[in-house]
Design a protein that fits this description.
Strand content: 35-45%
Strand order of the largest sheet: 1-2-3-4
Structural class: mainly beta
Largest sheet: 4 strands, antiparallel
Helix content: under 10%
Order of helices and strands: HEEEEEEEEEEEEEEEEEEEEEEEEEEEEE
Number of strands: 29
Distance between the termini: 36 Å
CATH architecture: 6 Propeller
Radius of gyration: 20 Å
Length: 349
């Protein structure tokens, strides 16, 4: 009997340790990277695509791809993301995982003269076969948008930046027909760098950066403190948008967001909107935040929690079992990270 108890105790400890096993670091620091989680017949994978390297300069923008098979001790470099543009690296792309495929959308390139171009390229990526299939062109190419999956078929791209300004569009990609349609436009101000999550047919989108017109100088940018809830109706292209109370009253830029059941999580980000190098549009270095905003769709109420690590410059949040994962990003003093930040759900209760 004693031996059985000891065996059970050891097994329980091993189970706990495996559940919260640390993830190996990325091969290189990377921020503003598109991330996804996919389930395949050969195992589950974390995928990081493109982004910004440690130097935080336009020369550090790349199209590299790394994949980690859950349970293995190192990331593997994969085939780089193709591009129809002369510059191959992209920032502010967005990715989602549906079954065994990663769907990758948009992003922008940065030239030596700081010219930025929104990329029209979208791909379906198979991490096991390591190949790309080009998707139908987005009607209006956007970067710094939100991508939300409905019914494991439809991908909603909400707002974002297109070359010269923000758009209020909700562009819906049908993964079965490789086609696009417009849905009900976003109710709030058009923004970029916002965050959103969806559970079943209810999506919540918060914050971002809006364009501020000026009389005698070039346009400016300002944080937009606002949250909205959109309910997808029986017609998947009709969204009933409503306003939501903001959890803090202070906007955050480039948070990471996802859902676990009927609970939505918004983690990290910065309260000072910034250029891709982490320096604010106001000229001040932006600071990463450690807050986690938690929205319960059943009670329609917010809760505020926090983590030990403050991070920003995210394009997605991964839900893996009983924890949330942030892949890369920026930390203290805008340092580009090579870490996988783990947030235990039990620590947020």
């Amino acid at each position: 009997m004693l031996l059985k108890k000891i065996t059970f105790f050891i097994s329980a400890l091993l189970s706990i340790n495996l559940s919260y096993a640390s993830y190996p670091p990325l091969p290189e620091p990377v921020s503003n990277n598109a991330v996804a989680f996919v389930k395949t017949e050969h195992g589950d994978y974390l995928v990081s695509m493109m982004g910004l390297g440690a130097g935080r300069d336009y020369k550090d923008i790349h199209n590299k791809v790394w994949a980690l098979k859950i349970g293995e001790n190192s990331w593997q470099q994969k085939t780089s993301v193709p591009s129809s543009l002369p510059l191959k690296g992209r920032l502010a792309s967005i990715a989602v995982g549906i079954k065994q495929h990663v769907y990758l959308f948009g992003g922008y390139t940065v030239a030596a003269d700081h010219t930025e171009i929104s990329s029209p390229d979208n791909f379906k990526y198979d991490v096991v076969q390591d190949n790309y299939i080009k998707l139908a062109a987005m009607p209006v190419p956007v970067d710094d948008a939100v991508a939300l999956v409905h019914q494991e078929r439809y991908i909603y791209l909400v707002s974002g930046w297109h070359n010269d300004g923000n758009v209020n569009l909700v562009q819906v990609y049908d993964t079965q027909t490789d086609s696009w349609r417009q849905a009900s436009p976003f109710l709030g101000k058009p923004v970029f760098g916002h965050a959103g999550a969806i559970s079943v047919n209810k999506m919540v989108v918060c914050d971002g950066v809006a364009v501020v017109p000026e009389a005698n100088k070039r346009r400016g940018f300002a944080a937009e403190s606002a949250c909205y809830i959109g309910t997808i109706t029986d017609d998947i292209y009709k969204i009933d948008w409503r306003t939501l109370p903001h959890p803090t009253g202070t906007a955050r830029y480039r948070m990471a967001a996802t859902h676990v059941g009927d609970t939505l999580y918004f983690a990290g980000g910065s309260d000072n909107p910034y250029n891709y190098n982490g320096i604010g549009y106001d000229g001040q270095p932006s600071k990463a935040d450690n807050q986690v905003w938690i929205f319960n769709l059943d009670t329609m109420k917010w809760n505020i929690s926090s983590t030990k690590a403050a991070t920003m410059d995210h394009r997605g949040l991964i839900n893996d079992k009983d924890q949330l994962l942030i892949i890369g990003g920026m930390g203290k003093n805008q340092q580009v990270l090579n870490t996988v930040t783990q947030i235990k759900l039990s620590d947020l209760e």
